Structure formats: C-alpha cells, structure tokens
Amino acid sequence: MAPRFQLKSNVKSMECELHCPVCKEIVKQPVVLPCQHSVCLMCASEVLVKNGYPPPELPPEPNSPASTPNTRSPRQPRRPMPCKADHRPIDRVLRSGFGTYPSPGRRRKEPPPAMLFPCPPCGREVELGEKGLTDCLRNLTLERIVERYRHTVSLGSVAVMCQFCKPPLSLEATKGCADCQASFCNECFKLYHPWGTPRAQHEHVQPTLNFRPKVLSCPEHDQERLHFYCRTCQRLLCPLCKLRRVHAGHKVAPVAQAYQTLKDKITKEMNYILSNQETVLGQISQLESAITQTEANSVAAREQLSQSVRDLTSLLAERYASLAQALEGARQRRGEALAGQVAERRSLLEHAGLMAFSQELLKETDPPCFVQAARQTHSRLSTSIEGLQCFSLAADPSFRHFQLDVSKELKLLTDLQFIQAPLAPVIDTQKTMAYDQLFLCWRLPQESTPAWHFSVEFRRRGVVPGGGARGGIQGRLATARWGWQRLEEVGGTSAVIDRLEMDSVYVLRVRGCNKAGFGEYSEEVYLHTPPAPVLNFYLDSRWGLHADRLVVSKEQRCARSVPGLSLLQAADRALTSCHLTADLLVGDVAITQGRHYWACSVEPGSYLVKVGVGLEAKLQEWFHLPQDMASPRYDPDSGHDSGAEDSLDSPPSFSFLTMGMGKIFLPQAPNHHNNHGCNGTSPRRSPTIANGNSPASSPTGLTYPLPPRLGVCLDFEKGRVTFYDAHSLRPLWEGPVDCSGPVCPAFIFIGGGALQLQELVANRMADQTPVRRVTIQSRVTNLNN
C-alpha cells in the first residue's frame, strides 16, 4: 500500500501544473499558445470575445447536449460523416494556401489584423496570427496527463456513465471508443460495434468524458500529419507547410529527431535536479526559515512604524503646546497695551479723568501754588495732544506673523515612505580601466537614495578550452567554479582590484547598501587585463633634448613637441628638398628579458608621432650622429645606420607605428624584407579595429581612426612586438624586432604633437609620487612582482 499511496501523493502534488492560468481550474481541451503556455479552449475564446474579437468557431464540449448521444435516437447517426479528403492537384493547393503573388491586374487583399491574446503567465500580449485560435494546436500530451491524474485521484469515486443507455437505467461505462468519441457499457458497445463490420475495428480506450483526436494534424492543411519541426520558428510543420517560402533557410528537422533531442535534454535536466535533491531540500529549509523571519520582521517593522508615528504625534503635540503658549503671551501683551491706551483716551473725556482735574486746577487763584501744581498737568496735557494728533495703536491686532507655513512639512509627510535601497549604480566606462591593477569607477543616479557603502563583485569569465563561452549546465558549473569575489564596504565611488591574472576577461558589477539593505546590481562590464606584466618607466630627459622643440613635464610622463626655430630656418630649403626635424625620446629603462606591456595616448591634433621600441645601442648611435631627415641613411625606421652592413634576414633594430592627424597607420606585410622597422619579416595586422570603422587603404598599408590609448607588448625572448588598442585590448599590428641587446621604449616627434604615458593605477591611488627609476638599467623592471 505504501507505493500506491506514494504514487497518489506524487500525482496529486502536480495538480498546480495542470491548472489553466485563466480559470485557475484543471484544463479542459487545452491549446498551446505561441508563447508555449496552455489554456482551456473555452477560456481562450471568452478572453478574445471580451477583448472585442468575434467569437471563434469551437467544437462542442464533450458533456454538452450536442455531443451526448443519448439525446438522440440510437438509429440516428451520432455525427455527420467526415468530409471527403481534398483531392485537388498539389499545384492548386499550393496556389491557394502558400501566399504566392497574384496574377497581374489583380489587387491583393489586405490580410486581416492579427489577434492578440493577453497571456497571464507572460504578462504580455501574444500574437495568435490571422486565424486566431485555429492556428493553435491542441496539447494532447497535457490532456493525457490530466486524464491519468483524474483516474488516479478523483475517478475512484466518480463513475463515467454510458452515453447510449436510456435514463434512468443508465449503466456505468466500461469502454470508450476513440473513433466514436463516446463511452459505452458492455451491451451498448456490442450494439454499436457489431462483429464483422468496420466499427468492430475501432480503437478501445478507457471510458472518459473528454475524447481527443488520435494524432495532431495541420491546422492549415486537413488530414496532413505534422512530420517536421522548425527550430527557427519553434513550430510543428506538415510536408506542405515545409515547402512554404516563410520557412526557407530555417533549420527544419524531422519531428522524431526533435522529439529525441528534447527528450534527452529533459532527461538530463531531470537527472541533474534529482541528483541535487539535498540542495533542493536545503534551499527549501532556507526558504521556510526566510518565511518565518519575514513574519517576525514584519511584526517588528509594524511596531517600529507605529512607534515612529507616535513619536511624530508626540513631537507635534509638544510643538503645538509651545507655539500655543507663545501665541497666548502675545495676545496678553497686546491686550494690555491696547487696554492702557483706551484708559488714557477715556481720561481725556470732558467730565472724567485728566480733563476734570485740569478744570479744578484752573480754579486756583494763588499764583505760586498754581505754578507749582500745574507743571505736571501741563506736561500730561501736551503728551495727550501729541497722542491725539499722531494717533497709532499701541499693538498690532493682527496675528499674521503667527501663522505657520507647513507646505514643506505637508510635502514631506505626503512623500513619507519607507527607506529605499540605493538604485543600481552607473559605471563610468570612460574612467574604468584595467592596467597594472583594475580600476572601477561608478556613480549613483540622481534620483537614488544615498548609500552608506558599496559592494564590488568580480569574477573571471570562464572559457571552454579551445575557445568559446560555456553554455547550459556546463556554463553554470563554470560560473560556480569561477565564483563571484567581493570587496565589501567600499566607502567611495571607486575601487582598485589587484592580484588579477594576465590576459583574462573579468566581469564586474557593483551595488549600494544603506539601512534598507543592498540595492540592485549595476550592469555588468567586461574588462580585459593586459597580456603581460605592466612596465613602469619615465621619459628620459638626459639624452640631450632640444629645449626649444621638446618639453617634458615635471613628472616625466608627458612630452610635448612644438615646431621650433630650426624648422623656420630651414624654410628656404622647403622648395628644393624635404627637410623635417625629428626628436627622439626614450624611456629610462632597458629590457633584457621577459614580456612587458605599457600604454600611452597621443593627442589627436599631433602632426606625426611614432611609438615603438628599439635597441638601446642603435638609438644612442642614431641620436648622437648628425640628424638630417632628408637622408634615408638616418631614417629612424630604417633599423640600422647603413643599408649594407646587416644581413637581409636579420630582424629590424626598430619597430614603430606612426600616428598623426587623428589617424594611425598600419603597414602592409611586404613581399620581401626591406629592413624597415614597421615592416618586419612576418608582421601580422588585425583585420578590424576596436571602433569598427572601415579603414582607408593605400598601397603600403591601412589607415584607421586613432584609438584613445595605444598599448605595446614586447616579448624579448621571441623578438616580437605587438601593438594593441589599449581600450579593448584588441591587437592592431605585430612584427619582429632585434632583441640581441637591451631594448628601450622609444618615441619620435615630427612637427607638433603631445604624448602621455599611461599612469599606473597604483600611483594614481597613492598619496605621493613613487621614487623615479634610474636611466637605462640592465635588469628587468616588473612592478607587478
């Protein structure tokens, strides 16, 4: 009994999967919408009618009088015979249903507007097509599952009655006929399926009230079975639908192959879930604990809300008492002042107060006594006359300045809300970069609530060996292996991440936190770390710079070239020869082993600036000899001082890329070695550039827009130098260089221009500038170690 009970329990637990999303009951005659959700046919038709569409033609319900045979005579046929098959020629069928172009002179009818069905699970409107529900196939598999569910759970107590017995003597049905689509008792089944007739060959099924067709047929072509599956459209097709032009170029497979593929995927996914039942149970425990915590925390939050309202009410009451006391004091003072003024005026009446006393005083005849007594009365009368002539109230009876302006407070109370977590930060892609360390910068939206601190998360992007990103379960496992690492409680709006692997892609995101908790994550950004350790160096100013043409900044990381007096003095030779002045600037380090990477930026308005590497000895030799750009012997791109000393197979001593006027020039691969620094024996040029702009070609190379930053990677052991777009780490050009001796970073200015070395992230975040390196050292400078 235990397995039987377990089976019933398992089947009953899936009842929620069998509910129609519209009526919330077990589905009846379900149809599959284009979004792959299933709804009852009657529910779908009612929704369409409510939305203003005409009622569709639906088959009668299985338990309706129109489909119940016992309401008709047994001799009367249950239903009309099916229509004969369409025997039209195939070309007529194609012309009628395949949407071919009309013949000339005929006007094509505009197709009716497509029906839109509001799918509750999707939360959006799904386009059904021109025919509406007619294009939707019945979900026979779901009907079979529902039938098995009813037999297992509910049909033990609810019997299916014979549809051909006359009431009240109806017997319980024992058989069902899939062809007749009716349920029979034993006697009625024998009566309607006589032995030796075609009816005796009908398919017997379990008795039911909901019969379905044996197989799915094409809704557009009657009696055509669905033998194909279009992976592009995700629709079942019949052989005629497959020939339609709408499926031309689509991935169409036999339905048996699609069946096996989908079945294998579902089996693997089920096995994966079943093998992780402990994880599921653990997550269920966490969710149940979260529900308990939710209830407890909601009670605490409600109490805190009530306490906050009580505090506001108490504070308002205290403030009301204070303001009311101030108002009452002002009323008393003003009332007393006005009352005194009234008493003073009343004393000026004819037979009262001061006037009566003055009349009695005038009756005095003794002059000395009168003068002595009348002095004060005279003063009082003078004051009263001034008061009568310049009358004003002793106090303002209005209380206008005692009114409260509570508009701001009312707005604050109206906008009173629970505290909100910060919105998703916006990452500043212009400042965010990956160099010696990874620097991430972001900001909060203007309408966001403040954040106490931020959490920065990053992970290395998993890649399948041999290339390509991981997908499916394998990709999720790779993501779990390369899990998110966090920098907790970052105070500002920027963060530095170190100890990262070279030549790797990292995914980063950030979110804010305040009293309400963590907010939403920002959009993920991808940063590519440099292909080699970053080399830190400074511009060497001790190689005899021309101060009138080349200026190096105090930090020795920026240089600017200005056309000087020498170019002006050579202007008289400009018509007879090409005379330009070139200024060489090198780094204060020499590389003798390993791989190193550095980056710089060239001002777009520069005339010509060459960036690259060269042998230290050759650079010194070229720099100290007389420089005349009119002679090809001393071309800094020639790679040596003479065209006949070196072997034709030796790599060039210099390797430069030329930039200027907002462009960068990428040389073509030459047919033979010409000892040119930019054109090595086997250079490699990237077919595209980071911004995707099309290049301007020339017989000797291609011209691209100047990238914001240029990266240089030197592999000393292999004798190769690679130039990158430092913003995206996409290679631009690669070529050989002679590494038989120490190699230095080199820069050449022709005409006006400016260059800026990329500053280390560690130096940018430090409080003070680090100590400078010495000039031309013979050991490897590696700041990452």
From TrEMBL:
Domain called COS: residue spans: 362-419
What GO molecular functions are on record for this protein?
A: zinc ion binding
> What are the protein's UniProt keywords?
Coiled coil, Metal-binding, Zinc, Zinc-finger
Composition-biased stretches, type Polar residues, lie in 64-74, 676-701
The biased composition feature labelled Pro residues covers 54-63
The record's region (Disordered) falls at 54-86, 630-649, 672-702
Q: What is this protein called?
A: Tripartite motif containing 46b
Q: Which organism is it from?
A: Coregonus suidteri
